[in-house]
Write a structure and sequence with these properties.
- The structure is a homodimer of 400-residue chains.
- Chain A is of the alpha/beta class.
- The first copy, chain A, is 45% helix and 14% strand.
- Chain A has helices spanning 3-7, 10-24, 43-52, 55-62, 71-83, 98-110, 127-133, 150-160, 181-191, 220-223, 253-264, 272-283, 287-312, 338-348, 377-399; strands at residues 29-30, 92-96, 116-121, 137-144, 147-148, 164-167, 198-201, 230-235, 247-251, 318-319, 327-331, 350-351, 353-354, 367-371.
- In chain A, strand 3 (116-121), helix 7 (127-133) and strand 4 (137-144) form a beta-alpha-beta unit.
- The mean pLDDT of chain A is 94.
- At the A-B interface, helix 1, helix 2, helix 3, helix 4 and helix 6 of A face helix 1, helix 2, helix 3, helix 4 and helix 6 of B.
Chain lengths: 400, 400
């Protein structure tokens, strides 16, 4: 077996499976899954789309497509990205199996085993297996309410000379924050002249709760000095459905050309069938109204959870006030450990993801992620109550 | 950039794109694509499936699924594989993005850069970018009408001590052959005690033309001594549609567990949406009748092409008589080069894939692949006529 195969432990996967099993138990109140609520999927819109689909498109959907993507989707996706202010004409665009595969392909192009990747702490949990796949060395930079701490970021760039900087500035998973415009400018300033590619992951940017916050979601890719090589990734997962497994990579042409060759060795092309559906979803003009519905629904869920936290959390527990996305990031009092808390809470009927899962260096466990995207509205407060009671029990234990 | 990125050339990809463009020109007679004919896709069956799909399944289709596969599909797929005599209970099973991704995952587990992989010559053209992705060293073993030449295979195993042996025994792409039962037994005998994993790729086994040949398609995985580690891959591409991007890997549990962890770093899961459809296709009992239709259609196309070749090919051109699958493998007379022939034929309106594309060592170019799966029946003879005329022109040039 390879170095990779020897380095990974099958237990990792069974732990994830256990968590998924717990989360899919209908009696369990789950704040753990970073997945949309099934009741919010555009099922009716898709029924309508399929009814109207011409025979030719149906046949296309069954067939192989070009590696960079189904040409009509590349066209409609380009129009969508252009409308977000992105420099589509000056870059290459490829469709990927979720933005996760875009992260995979970019890492394949830039990161040899043992090379450093600088990420955020906490970091998107799905990106960690990708970096592990390539046996990258991870260095995390702590996030504050406005983005990565600048002095830490500068030190990490200088000490590690990373091959890649991975940032998720918009409604961060799990930290729930959005970078301020000033912080984004400062990050770009730090990157100038260093030649370090930035992987800008924008899976949640469309899910702002308040129209007034929309300007915060302007991608760095849209405003950056073109001398900074930015690989911008996005996804249909949060704006259509993750089961479609569709995302994209917009990046310098020399990078996307290499990514395309790498993709030939990964899956040859993404599902043409779901690309046909995504194309019809964009072209049919369904997205704006659907996004409006999602923004309202997630904002309401977030409010319900925040209200419950305010009412029920013991002193010393801290959390952010999300302006969009799926996540609340909870900081526990100093003596409390998230893994110990999860054990008690799971037995009492509520689960979440422990902070350590999001630490690229696998250490810090004083935080936890609460997802409000998936839990039915009328069970959110009950789940928060279970958490509060579990905290009280854990604090009692700790005192003894 | 990484060693991989520096080693691949963007021109490779543009060459493939040029070929696809030529093949998609409606005036071109294309024998190049290894793709099903769009008129043969089960469009009506899928319309019926979608109409009957319960809301819950539709919602499932939008959602993330477990990395190894959508549980109902793992169940229906297991039943299907069991019916083919495969040892499902003693192995792990995961759903992949086409069998190409299964090849990717197995290679990730066994092959470090510079390690040897032994393949057939000619070799499935889609597997070559996968092995290139992992910077494997490729050694080809020539095929005869019954399978790999045994003495060459033995020498290759001894000289290379490969980490993986990759074989596609059933209606080989591009060689068009099916291994004889004796040759399969001899290959397994050769492998005994060596500990070299066999990657057995079975994308076309269902597409035999004559029921009497069905026993030839019994997988080695079904009959092998369990001490030989066989990773068996298959695909929905030829029995449902490649655009679904669904295949599978049935292999020793320690291997599939590692593949599952690797898949977390590739795409997290395959499209749940198309997995829901594939599951309904299997459960609905559509497959047997659909396969019957395909077998008859491809047998007819193969006969039309073979008849045309017999009538039109100049002396010295040789080809096999396929018992199934999509491909005829044509051997040119000694002085004739496939790439030179393609140039003339493409200008005259017919394209194919040159033999060199299938040589894992990238040298031999005295053969070419004709695919009869995609070309409309009434254009096959015209295309063969263009080939014959192009050969005559090339022979004339060569004489001058």
């Amino acid at each position: 077996m390879t170095r990779f195969a020897r380095s990974v432990d099958a237990l990792q996967s069974s732990a994830v499976r256990e968590l998924m099993k717990a989360a899919s138990n209908p009696d369990m109140i789950s704040f753990s899954g970073g997945m949309p609520n099934p009741g919010l999927f555009p099922v009716e819109e898709l029924d309508e789309i399929i009814t109207k689909l011409p025979l030719r498109s149906k046949q296309d959907g069954f067939q192989y497509g070009p590696t960079p993507g189904y040409p009509p989707l590349l066209e409609s996706l380009s129009a969508y990205l252009r409308s977000k202010g992105l420099p589509v004409e000056d870059n290459g665009l490829i469709v990927t199996a979720g933005s996760l595969q875009a992260i995979h392909l970019v890492t394949k192009v830039f990161v040899d085993p043992g090379d450093a990747v600088v990420t955020e702490t906490p970091c998107f949990v799905g990106a960690i297996p990708v970096f592990r796949y390539f046996q990258a060395r991870l260095r995390g930079v702590p996030l504050d309410a406005d983005g990565p701490a600048l002095s830490d970021l500068e030190r990490a760039l200088e000490e590690e000379k990373p091959r890649l900087l991975y940032l998720t500035p918009y409604f961060h998973n799990p930290a729930g924050i959005v970078y301020s415009a000033e912080r984004k400018a400062a990050v770009m300033n730090l990157l100038k002249g260093r030649g370090i590619p930035l992987l800008e992951d924008d899976a949640y940017g469309e899910l702002y709760f308040d129209e007034a916050d929309r300007p915060l979601t302007l991608p760095m890719k849209a405003s950056a000095d073109p001398s900074i090589p930015i690989c911008y990734t996005g996804s249909f997962s949060k704006i259509f459905g993750p089961g479609m497994r569709l995302g994209w990579l917009l990046g310098p042409r020399d990078v996307t050309a290499k990514c395309e060759l790498a993709k030939q060795g990964v899956d040859a092309c993404s599902s043409t069938y779901t690309q046909v559906l995504a194309d019809a979803f964009l072209r049919g003009g369904y997205l704006p109204a659907y996004l409006e519905r999602l923004r309202q629904a997630y904002a309401r869920r977030c409010r319900i959870m925040t209200d419950a936290l305010k009412a029920l959390m013991p002193e010393g527990v801290k959390w952010n006030a999300p302006k969009g996305g799926f996540y609340l990031w909870l900081r526990l009092p100093p003596a409390m450990n998230a893994t110990a808390l999860l054990e008690i809470a799971a037995a009492a009927g509520a689960v979440f993801v422990v902070g350590r899962a999001f630490d690229p260096e696998g250490r810090r466990d004083d935080c936890l992620r609460l997802s409000f995207s998936h839990t039915p509205e009328d069970r959110i407060a009950d789940g928060v109550r279970i958490l509060a009671e579990s905290m009280a029990r854990l604090a009692g234990k700790n005192r003894r």
